[in-house]
Design goal:
Chain lengths: 876, 271
């Protein structure tokens, strides 16, 4: 009996176990329906036994083991009525015809985001993201989804740089937000807000779409005081390095101050420089940078890192203060004071090559530079929904001076310079609506004063100045007063795929140059030695920029029309010049993306350049002790024609990158300059009116590939430059050709995860051809070998070496520098300890050789000796 | 002469371009949003991140993308045809930069991912997931959902699907159930997809716009590329013309490596 039961069980399993139901699903017109669900249920229940989905031809096939007598079969498809039937449990062919039915989807939403989202603002609660080892708000930011902090401190939201970093809605630091991000402890912060699609200028909010986000830091307390400090010390001679940066935030006021001082060769003054492109353009356009007319004879500085040779003693104090006023107004004050004392020691050997003879001068130089400057900026800004207004009043004062002693062919020569500079300027930018257009108005007004004096003892140029008699002292005084204004208004129009930007404006520049040469013998020199120049320049401009973008093409055409007017007059010398000219300076650029790998770009432009006041002065100016200059010439005018084309190939799959770029520029200059060197080495610059051409070809290429097997990145690069021009050498018109070839390579290998080696080499070959006569090739080599080791997460060790070899004619110089760095971070307390040993082999002297068209200058520069520095960094 | 040469060069390149992609396009039917919460590091159970993921469904295909990624792409597209005069160099990045197109008719998926500066695409057969149906039921968003379990790429999953919406699809590469997946999570709770919203969508969608600029590669090449990127991220950032300071790149590499080392808990543990 038992046996029979077993047989039945086995039998039923074999025969009845696998039931196959298959068929076709169609609609009532006979079209097959794919992706319909066919489900088999236990009869009259919701329990699914199995299912199948119909294929492209509407066929389905279900096989299932079953001991049930009957099952429910259901056919479901979106947009059709569901069919349910009860069928016998046996293999059959069963077709279905579905009837169309509108399916009403219940639109449902649940909202439960851990990050609170409100309009365009996303809020992150700092507590839920912070960790034990975090210190600054920047550390926590890195962990917030969507936010990224790059190694240089730049913050990205969703991969795009943020456009503003606010603290409590106020923009204290503008682009320098890293100062706050790195130094503000996260414990002071309650919330980080991301303002998506943030348009910083409220007046443009609805007009100009912004796809960038801003970041706002909400503080815990209404009053927050915090900051960071770094202290370092070392020896030979006694070294120090300090950086103390405290800050204060309240609801209405924000303040960040920094004091930095060192004598380790770190030129912290560069922090005061403006970094955004807009600022740099303004500086160039507005002539607002300090200019020096006079100078002491300097040493040519080495062409490697400043930190190896700069002998400084710098103190920098900078304060930034922001105060919120009523009616959306903000007042910001930035104030910086800089004091630096730099020294230079060394000697130069100069050979002036003239067709008749060679003049040699050996100078031993001891120079002292004193920098003393104050910069202030007072900005009032209103950022309201209707209009935007920003006014900056700036004052800069430089009380700089220099002192130099030269041992010239065993005779002592003293130079004393006072090179002061003062500037006061006001810049206004406002945006307001006019009908449907938004008009942008820019206005700049500035006043500069450059009172500078140079004393040289004993007196120079006695043949010119003192009837060939030696004398005690010569004094050069220069005073330049400048008034400059630039005003423009502009608007942008969109026409389909074109965007047209129009800008109309005018510039006026009025300068007065007064200079005088005085001697210890004679106070009343002839007119030849004093300038009383009146310079007036105006420019009216209309600039239209058209952009066109389609698929893979991008074009930009700029068509500026300028009207220039120059009026230059020196009444006592009875010299004057006038110039009236209209220039058209078009520029066209095109970019074409061929495909994912290839890209081509090209541009062509024409420009006109006019001279500035330091290129025209009818009487002599003693620029330095052996350079006496007067330029009695028409206004210099250069017309340029530039062309460039570049091809780039990027194949990330093969990690192969290559590009090549060709540039050509041709220019016509209306003047030729001649330097006349007299027997004592004094030189005089003269300009002669004669059109001359300058032609420059440059081709450069670079290729790099990453080899995964050896974990190495290899880069090769080469640049070839060919330049031809004409020059007057002692009254002879000479054709000059310069050629230079630079080839280099770089290998970067990860030996292990914790060790990295980098080797970089560069060779420069330069050749010069004067009047069909070839000069010997000059070869310069530089090799860099760096070893970086990361023994643990909180440790870093590096050995950095640099080898420089110069081969000039018969001369050969060699230099080797090696530095060691070790850094240890105490994670818990967030204290960094750093040990630096620079210039291990104590290379104290560096020789450079400069060759110009008429001179050969060899400079010996005293470098910073071997030094040891220990640094500590902590939170205030 | 110079110009002639340029034109010749340009033409040669133009000839190289071929447009021959039979792409999927249709009016969309539904848009489903899932909240994905995930644990990046196996041990670090505190650091749970989340992102919204969108599944767009049409008759013959579906498109899966991170919500933030989609927003940024739309912005960039808008930008190309708008007035913005500034050329934006940096491009969008979100935690999930990949997209998945499921081609229902051909049982294929087109997987696209951004590595470094470019997006790469490859095609492959749709994964066959062996679902085991369970009888348990719960209600999500007013829909009756049934339980199913399966293994996928080294993890065991529990899924809740509704036969009321007979779309055999779900988030990521999950599909093949007799209804839409409303919720799916692995048994370790490292990856959890929960439906947030469900709505009709009548916009037209052309996958050409999505994959037009992508670099087509094979799955093998993709894996190789991904491996290289993990090995030395900066090797992908080479733009050809610019050189970056070494220390910056090293720092970036070190940081990225650390980050990648920390992110040791991907959804797919095995191939």
């Amino acid at each position: 009996m038992k046996k029979i039961l077993w047989i039945i069980i086995l039998f039923s399993n074999c025969v009845f176990s696998q039931i196959v139901i298959k068929g076709k699903i169609e609609d009532k017109n006979g079209n097959t329906i794919s992706k319909a669900n066919v489900l088999i249920y236990k009869k009259a229940t919701e329990n699914i036994i199995t299912y199948n989905i119909s294929d492209n031809n509407g066929n389905y096939s279900i096989s299932f083991p079953s001991s049930y007598e009957e099952v429910d079969i259901q056919v479901r498809c979106m947009g059709y009525e569901t069919i349910t039937e009860t069928i016998e449990n046996k293999s059959i062919n069963k077709n279905f015809t579905l009837i169309e039915k509108v399916f009403e989807l219940k639109d449902v939403v649940v909202k439960s985001s851990p990050i609170r989202q409100k309009g365009d603002t996303i809020k992150y609660f700092v507590n839920s993201f912070s960790k034990e080892q975090d210190r600054s708000i920047g550390d926590v930011l890195k962990r917030m989804p969507g936010i990224e902090v790059l190694s240089d401190g730049k913050i990205l939201y969703q991969g795009r740089p943020i456009n503003k970093y606010y603290i409590e809605g106020l923009d204290l630091l503008e682009g320098k937000y890293n100062l706050a991000n790195e130094n503000l402890p996260f414990k002071e912060v309650t919330q980080v807000q991301i303002l998506e699609n943030h348009q910083p200028i409220k007046a443009l909010d609805s007009l100009k779409f912004s796809d960038q986000a801003a970041l706002n830091i909400k503080l815990k307390n209404a009053y927050t005081f915090t900051g960071q400090a770094r202290l370092g010390s070392g020896f030979s001679p006694l070294l120090w390095d300090a950086n103390i940066t405290p800050m204060l935030f309240t609801k209405k006021k924000q303040m960040l101050t920094t004091y930095q001082a060192n004598n380790t060769g770190d030129n912290v003054a560069s922090q005061l420089k403006k970094h955004t492109i807009e600022d740099l353009l303004n500086q160039f356009e507005n002539n607002s940078e300090k200019t020096d007319w006079l100078g002491i004879q300097q040493l040519a500085t080495p062409n490697f890192s400043e930190k190896r040779w700069l002998d400084n003693n710098i103190h920098l104090l900078s304060g930034n203060y922001l105060h919120k006023l009523k009616n959306d107004y903000e007042l910001r004050v930035n104030l910086s004071y800089l004091n630096d004392y730099q020294q230079q020691n060394g000697f130069t050997n100069t050979e002036f090559i003239t067709p008749t003879n060679t003049i040699t001068i050996l100078e031993e130089k001891q120079n002292h530079f004193f920098f003393n400057s104050l910069q202030t900026n007072l900005t009032l800004q209103k950022n309201a929904s209707k209009n935007y207004f920003k006014n900056s009043l700036e004052f800069q004062g430089f009380w700089d001076s220099q002192r130099g002693t030269i041992l010239l062919n065993n005779q002592q020569l003293k130079q004393q310079l006072s090179n002061e500079f003062f500037r006061i300027s006001n810049q206004l930018k406002t945006i307001f609506p006019l009908g449907k257009q938004m008009i942008t108005l820019n206005s700049y007004i500035g006043l500069n004063k450059t009172p500078q004096t140079l004393n040289v003892n004993p007196g120079q140029f006695e043949n010119l100045i003192n009837n060939n008699l030696p004398y005690d002292e010569v004094t050069q005084q220069v005073d330049l007063k400048t008034f400059y204004t630039n005003n423009s208004f502009g608007f942008t129009k969109l026409i389909k795929r074109f965007s047209v930007e129009t800008k109309i404006g005018f510039q006026i520049e009025n300068q007065q140059l007064n200079s005088e040469i005085l001697t210890s013998e004679n106070f009343n020199l002839v007119n030849e030695f004093s300038n009383n120049l009146d310079w007036f320049r105006s420019k009216f401009y209309l600039n239209i920029t058209t952009q066109y973008k389609k698929d893979k093409w991008r074009f930009e055409l700029t068509t500026p029309i300028n009207h220039h007017n120059f009026q230059i007059k020196d009444t006592p010398l009875q010299s004057s010049e006038n110039l009236n000219q209209v220039t058209f300076e078009p520029r066209l650029s095109a970019i074409y993306d061929v495909n994912s790998f290839w890209k081509i770009n090209s541009s062509i432009n024409f420009t006109n350049q006019f001279g500035t006041i330091n290129q025209i002065h009818y009487a002599y100016i003693l620029q330095n002790y052996r350079n006496l200059q007067r330029i009695n010439a028409p206004i210099p005018q250069i017309t340029n024609q530039n062309f460039s084309i570049g091809i780039a190939y990027r194949n990330p799959i093969k990690t192969l990158f290559w590009n090549v770029m060709y540039m050509n520029s041709k220019s016509v200059n209306n003047l030729l300059y001649q330097t006349q060197v007299s027997t004592n080495g004094a030189s005089e610059l003269k300009a002669i009116e004669q059109d001359n051409n300058r032609n420059n070809h440059n081709i450069s290429t670079r290729a790099s590939k990453y080899y995964s097997k050896i974990k190495s990145n290899i880069t090769l690069n080469a640049t070839f430059n060919l330049q031809s021009f004409q020059q007057l050498l002692n009254n002879n018109l000479t054709d000059i050709k310069n050629q230079s070839l630079v080839v280099g390579n770089k290998i970067d290998t990860d030996i292990t995860d914790k060790m990295n080696v980098e080797y970089q080499a560069n060779w420069t070959f330069s050749k010069n051809k004067t009047q069909n006569q070839d000069n010997p090739t000059v070869t310069q080599q530089s090799h860099i070998l760096n070893l970086n080791i990361y023994p643990a997460k909180n440790q870093y060790f590096a050995v950095k070496s640099e080898y420089i070899n110069n081969n000039l004619f018969t001369e050969r110089t060699e230099n080797l520098f090696t530095d060691l760095i070790y850094r240890y971070t105490i994670s818990k307390k967030k204290i960094d300890l750093e040990f630096q040993l620079s210039n291990l082999f104590n290379t104290t002297n560096y020789r450079t050789i400069n060759i110009s068209d008429f001179s050969y200058v060899e400079t010996n520069f005293n470098l910073r000796p071997r030094q040891v520095l220990f640094k500590i960094r902590f939170t205030l | 002469m110079k110009l002639k040469l340029i034109f010749i060069i340009m033409f040669t390149f133009l000839l190289n371009i071929t447009h021959s992609q039979n792409n999927l396009k249709d009016t969309l039917k539904y848009e489903i949003i899932y909240n994905l919460s995930y644990q990046e590091n196996k041990e670090d159970t505190i650091n749970i991140k989340s992102e919204e993921m969108i599944l767009k469904i049409s008759k013959n295909f579906s498109y899966y993308i991170s919500s933030n990624n989609l927003k940024l792409r739309n912005m960039l597209n808008g930008l190309q045809n708008s007035d913005e005069t500034t050329i934006i160099k940096s491009r969008p990045k979100s935690k999930f930069l990949f997209t998945i197109i499921k081609d229902y008719n051909n049982d294929k998926i087109i997987f696209s991912d951004r590595i470094g500066l470019d997006i790469y695409s490859f095609e492959k057969q749709m994964n066959k997931i062996d679902w085991v149906l369970q009888n348990e039921e719960i209600e999500i968003l007013g829909y009756k959902c049934k339980k199913a379990t399966a293994s996928f790429a080294g993890r065991d999953y529990i899924a809740w699907y509704s036969t009321e919406i007979s779309i055999s699809d779900g988030p990521y590469k999950f599909q093949g159930l007799p209804g839409l997946i409303f919720s799916i999570y692995d048994t370790n709770n490292h990856y959890k997809f929960n439906i947030l919203s469900l709505k009709k969508d009548n916009t037209y969608f052309d996958t050409k716009d999505e994959i037009f600029n992508h670099i087509k590669i094979s799955e093998k090449e993709y894996k190789e590329l991904k491996r290289k990127y993990r090995e030395k991220p900066s090797s992908m950032l080479n733009s050809g013309g610019m050189t970056f300071p070494k220390e910056l790149l090293d720092k970036g590499d070190q940081r990225a490596k650390e980050k990648l080392k920390y992110e040791n808990n991907p959804l797919e543990l095995e191939d």
